[in-house]
Amino acid sequence: MTDAVTPVVKVTHLRAYYSTHQFGVQREVRAVDDVSLQVMPDEIYGLAGESSCGKSTLIKTIAGAIRPPLAVQGGSVEFDFGGNKLDMYRAAPDEIAAIRWRHLSYVMQGSMGVLNPVRRVQQAFVDFALRHIGQPMPQFLDTVRAHLERVHLKPEVLRAYPHELSGGMRQRVAIALATVCKPELIIADEPTTALDVIVQKGVLDMIRSVQRELKTSLIFVTHDMAVHAHLCHRLGVMYAGRLIEEARTAELFGAPQHPYTQHLIASLPRIGRAAPTQALPGAPPNLAEPPSGCRFHPRCPRAMAVCQREVPPMQTLPGGHRVACFAVTPP
Amino acid sequence: MNTPLLQVQDVSRHYAMGGLLGRGHRAVDGVSFDVGAGRPEILALIGESGSGKTTLARIILGSVAPTSGSIRFDGVDTATLRGRSARLGFMRQVQPIFQNPFEAFNPLKRLDRYLFMTARHFAGAADTAAEQAQAERALRQVGLSLAEARGRFPHELSGGQLQRVAIARALIASPSLLVADEPVSMVDASLRTSIVNLFRTLRDELGVSILYITHDLATAYSISDRVVILRRGQVVEAGDARQVLDHPQHPYSIELKSAVLAPEVGTDE
User: Fold this and answer.
1) Mind listing the pLDDT tens digit for each residue in B205-246?
2) What's the fold here for domain B6-17+24-103+175-258?
3) Could you give the CA distance from residue B66 to residue B78 in angstroms, rounded to a whole number?
4) What is the ipTM of this complex?
5) Which domains does chain A have, with CATH numbers?
6) Which residues contact A156 (CB under 8 A, 6 or more apart)?
7) Nearest to B49 by CA among B226, B218, B214, B244
8) Contact yes or no for B222 and A276 at CB 8 A
9) What angle is formed at CA B77 by the lines to CA B71 and CA B81, rounded to 5 degrees?
10) What are phi and psi of A201, to 5 degrees?
11) A195 half-sphere exposure, CB direction, 13 A CA radius
12) Phi, psi angles (nearest 5°) of residue A33
């Protein structure tokens, strides 16, 4: 590492497969295949890709929230929370439990997933954060109230049941929960996808202002490229279980290198453009039987013979733009 | 002056809540618009969740009765349709396409059965050969072939392919109107464009009018001729798609448009 600052999380050649053994048939779904990435302090890292490209599996693996049949086959996930280092797949369970919520928290797509429908919102804060913050109850509640103000919520929501809140308010509560301990890294999986556009814009602006204030790192997963353009500093694009391109957001939108990213950005519908956009032929591959070589080659307009045989390695271009494509960096 | 294909006239649908003293909920409240006057068109019905757009689609398809108002198809009030043959005649003309193709098809039933049954009921196919010919023709129109769908179960196809099969099934009846409720919101980004382009082809080449129900202003701008913007069951703005979306007038339309994130990198970085 030549960088002066160390990354908050460093993922190296991570492979996570779903393997099942049923009726004598061994099946392996390579949902995350040889992914390497780093997230710096005070950075919003966006992860883009279509459904079943492995982006949710990747962040589950980073967060250590894996259950069989998903298993890590190789590689490592190393955290560095201001000198407090931890290797997710070599650490003891109690060490991992200690960093959860204190240093690493998680926002899910459905906020009802983190809120108990029959308990008041306050109970969720007590359950999640009380032992990490380590203050007596009255001071703890003051801390929570002050924090709620940051996400533009009134303290009264603590007395409410989840069903009494609107979808946007619930998602704000979920974000308040994830940020109340001021963790170094927050992983957000499609946190605004279920919201209407007007509410979504408010929640995104709020996420950005909270991130600026707390200087946390954020891994933000969504398939919506417009949200990435609006929020993220750096962006990684996944296709069929592999990271295929990574660059600063402005560069990725301005000069995408990988043919898939180029298509993804060119085909975005936007208000003000009525001309038909070109569709890509074919469909994303089945990860149980992925194509040989580059997994994009059956749909790629620039495919060459080598793309069918070999997996393009991730190459770094000048300026830190990384891309895995033989058409960009010939073998 | 041609009779519009579909006339929605002052349609309302109220749902009672909370018994005698409870409040009612107006899911759709006095909505009027026409589709396909003179030539085939794509009309986008835009609204957020709770705006009543799905209730309106159900009313048009006849699966929910309006509390007041009427739906006229080809000048005939659909509430006056009585009997099986009149009902089948209406269904032949107006076909639905649903949001999630995986829920629209029975997972235990082969896809070609759907196509063949539709050909038998709605396209007058008398024998197996005719059924197959009809299915093949419709699948060709959506860029698939019978060989690809034959004997397949829904889970064997991708979401985009399955949505194409759903559209092919609707086309077998040679409808004049498709009611498509959020047809691309469950489909992957790289396949969405192909479905949206398909709608354009259906309008231009087969003369099918499409009621495109969506919350996505960007695709609505790209394919529709006219738009109707709904909010809490009421029409807030309607008109030519380019004009309304380029220069929205109603405060809600302006707010909606400004909340749509452009897929471009902001200047505040």
Assistant:
1) 999 999 999 988 888 888 899 999 999 899 999 999 999 999
2) Rossmann fold (3.40.50)
3) 11
4) 0.74
5) 1-103+183-268+281-291 (3.40.50.300), 118-182 (no CATH)
6) none
7) B214
8) yes
9) 115
10) -60, -45
11) 26
12) -125, 105
* Residue A210 tokens, joined: 């909270």
**Contact B53/B235 with Cβ under 8 angstroms?**
no
Going along A124-241, which residue ranges are E strands? 185-189, 217-221, 234-239
In angstroms, the CA B45 to CA A206 distance is: 30
Q: Measured between alpha carbons, how far is A50 from A181 in angstroms, rounded to an integer?
A: 32
* B222, B257, B261: residue with CB nearest A273: B222
Distance CA A3, CA A1 (A): 6
Contact A57, A70 (CB under 8 A): yes
Token pair listed for B34: 């026409």
Say which of A229, A230, A283 has its CB closest to residue B160.
A283
Residues 6+ apart with CB under 8 A from A108: A114, A174, A189, A191
R_g over Cα of chain B = 19
At A67-80, the pLDDT tens digits run: 888 889 989 999 99
pLDDT tens-place string over residues B166-210 = 999 999 999 999 999 988 877 777 778 888 888 999 999 999 999
Instruction: Note whether B190 contacts A263, CB cutoff 8 Å.
Output: yes
Nearest-angstrom CA–CA distance, B260 and A71: 39
DSSP state of A100: B
For A165-192, b/e burial (b = at least 16 CB within 10 A) is: bebbbbbbbbbbbbbbbebbbbbbbbbb
From the list A197, A260, A275, the residue facing B256 with the nearest CB is: A197
Question: Cα(A101)–Cα(A1) distance, rounded to whole angstroms?
Answer: 28
Angstroms from A15 CA to nearest CA on chain B = 24
